[in-house]
Amino acid sequence: MFYSKLKTIFLSVAVIILAGSMIAFPKESFEASLRGLTMWWEIVFPSLLPFFIVSEMLIGFGVVKFIGVLLEPLMRPLFRVPGVGGFVWAMGMASGFPAGAKLSARLRQEGQLTQIEAERLASFTNSSNPLFIFGAVAVGFFHNPQLGVILALAHYLGNICVGLMMRFYGNETPDRKKGKDNKFILKSAFSALHQTRIKDKRPIGKLLGDAVNSSIQTLLMVGGFIILFSVINKLLFHLHITAALARGFDVLFSNLSLPDMLSIPFISGLFEITLGSDLTSRVGDATLLQQAIVTSFILGFSGFSVQAQVASILAQTDIRFKPFFFARIAQGLFASFFALLLWKPIYVRFYQTGEPSNAIPVNLFDQGTWPQIYFHKLTEAGPLITIISLMIYVLLLYNRLRKSY
């Protein structure tokens, strides 16, 4: 009872401070809100929407169940999750946050995962997508496409380690495929595909409409969190709270032989990965290796902004958020370790040149790399895709409401 009252007081005071800060810093709040909206408008919405819609349709048509049966012999021994986890893992890596959580929650609602299996799966299937790592971070912030190789390897190897670690989480789950002959696994997969499609009695048009509706609703929620945490991060900086928290990490950074100047970008990255990665790339006193280590932790931890998105999605089911949170800390540590471990054998050996570590390679932007080109095209076409998608969503919602009356 006392804890509940204390929590109520804390949350009330925090919201009052946030509201007062927005009144005290209206210009800064507006600029931060606009920055978050631009990120969602140009990048997040158009890049995630196709993956979300296709995922919903694949689940409805039974393709995910088909893939799950095929991947059962791989996913069950390694991660102690059903084979459908392989689909969630692949889609999570391809599309980025918070696709892994959304698909894990969706499969839990479908009854294809137990609660413990869903918590395991959500813990290691949420990751940054390659476009963000190469296009936004490596090229956009560090102006160094080769650095994206180290960041991506460290990030995805960290994902695998988290998955292997989380296999020991929770009680033993029954092996649903025990006794099945692997010679007939393809037949079982096709049978599962057909049965799943038959059970879902929705016509194709209704299935597509539901997929669009569900996906856009999720992305609207994601956009709200991005804007909110962009404002919170900016206000924390102007209230000098970020600097106060950073001083607490100075001792830790000194013991790890990291410059104190990285502490403020690190704290910013704990709240929002884009701002934290950008600020880390601007610290001139740090070596590129030190920047890569901090950035790898920020990408692995995901930031409270992404974690809030995931918490909102998981709250629709009985999947608990706590395992996901501790898995994010573990992935941040794993990713930082792999960035350090792979630096000499990969980056120094194959990519490092005689130019300064933070210098922009000659003709980089004239020649153009595929992440930069794709990222640039996405920012150009993103707003148009967002507008068209929102118009379709409004029409579908209007049609649904009209039929309900």
TrEMBL record:
Q: Where are the transmembrane segments?
A: 48-71, 78-101, 121-142, 149-169, 216-237, 249-271, 291-313, 325-343, 381-398
Name it.
Answer: Sporulation integral membrane protein YlbJ
Which InterPro entries does this one have?
Answer: Gate_dom (IPR011642), Spore_IM_YlbJ (IPR014226)
Q: Where is the Nucleoside transporter/FeoB GTPase Gate domain?
A: 44-140, 219-315
Q: Which Pfam families match?
A: Gate
Keyword Transmembrane included in the entry's annotation: yes
Residue ranges the record marks as coiled coil? none
- Is the keyword Transmembrane helix in the record? yes
UniProt keyword list = Membrane, Transmembrane, Transmembrane helix
Q: Which organism is it from?
A: Neobacillus driksii
